[in-house]
Write a structure and sequence with these properties.
This protein has about 240 residues and is α/β, with parallel strands linked by helices. It has one domain: 3-Layer(aba) Sandwich (Rossmann fold). It is built from seven helices and 13 strands. The strands form three sheets. The protein has a nine-stranded mixed sheet, with helices on both faces. Strands 2-3 form a two-stranded antiparallel sheet. Strand 2 and strand 3 form a beta hairpin. Helix 3 crosses helix 4. The longest helix is centred in the middle third of the chain and has 17 residues. It is globular. It starts with a strand and ends with a helix. The structure holds manganese (II) ion. The site of manganese (II) ion has 8 residues, from loops.
């Protein structure tokens, strides 16, 4: 039996007048399959009982990338530089993140997913890195050059972290497609990876369960650009017990 991994959907529109589409990029699906999991595209349903019924059937949760998180969840007014938000997606993913953290169901947050995890557990975000920090890098640089595998900056991983054990090196280049980043870190999370300019790029849970957030997009790298990220997906899926 392959562990069932829920990948949270984004909301997309092909035409303005058509109903929205829930889905996500194939790279997330491919990464879960390559790691031995069975991917399930988790729909955005505005009914907690339905979301719970689906969540209960999952062995692990992958909070995927996407738009900005509504800053009201961390008690801030929106800045002018805030990008689009998705109220329904925020609601659904915050339920999932809190349940997974409480119950020890393995959870992997990628980009927005890491930010949702942090906010769901009581942390906050910089709404716009260029406005609020003095970054050394263009953290959405892979976007700017329209290449998901374009490496923008290095990540340095804390050697004593749990996650460091799955990589054979503690510093290597990564892609970067984000304009927001973690500010206050939620009490249940610990920063364990940084860009050279100090932006938090990796967090892990402080309890015994698999709870990892990564700010870059390993799902776009694990295929050919940097196969070492396969180890992260493999480790995640291995922790998801059927
Ligand atoms: Mn970055």
């Amino acid at each position: 039996m392959k562990p069932l991994i829920g990948i949270t959907c984004g909301t997309f529109r092909d035409r303005e007048w058509c109903p929205p589409i829930h889905g996500h990029r194939q790279t997330y699906i491919d990464s879960v399959v390559a790691a031995g999991g069975a991917p399930f595209l988790f729909p955005l349903v505005d009914d907690q009982a339905v979301v719970r019924a689906l969540y209960d059937r999952l062995d692990g949760v992958l909070l995927a990338g996407g738009c900005d998180v509504d800053p009201s969840y961390y008690g801030e007014a929106p800045m002018e530089q805030l990008g689009p938000v998705d109220a329904l997606r925020d609601r659904v993913e915050i339920w999932l993140a809190r349940w997974a953290a409480e119950e020890g169901k393995p959870v992997l947050g990628i980009c927005r997913g890491m930010q949702v995890l942090n906010v769901a557990l009581g942390g906050s975000l910089y709404q716009d890195i260029p406005t609020q920090l003095t970054p050394q890098y263009i953290h959405d640089g892979s976007y700017a050059c329209e290449d998901w595998t374009h490496m923008v900056h290095d990540i340095r991983i804390e050697p004593s972290s749990k996650i460091a054990k799955i990589f054979d090196t503690s510093s290597f280049p990564i892609n970067s497609l984000h304009h927001q980043s973690l500010k206050a870190i939620a009490p249940q999370l610990k920063p364990v990876g940084w860009a050279p300019d100090g932006v938090v790029e990796l967090v892990e849970g402080s309890n015994g369960h698999f709870m990892v957030g990564v700010q870059c997009h390993p799902e776009a790298l694990q295929g050919e650009a940097d196969p070492r990220w396969r180890k992260l997906f493999k480790h995640f899926v291995e922790q998801c017990h059927v």
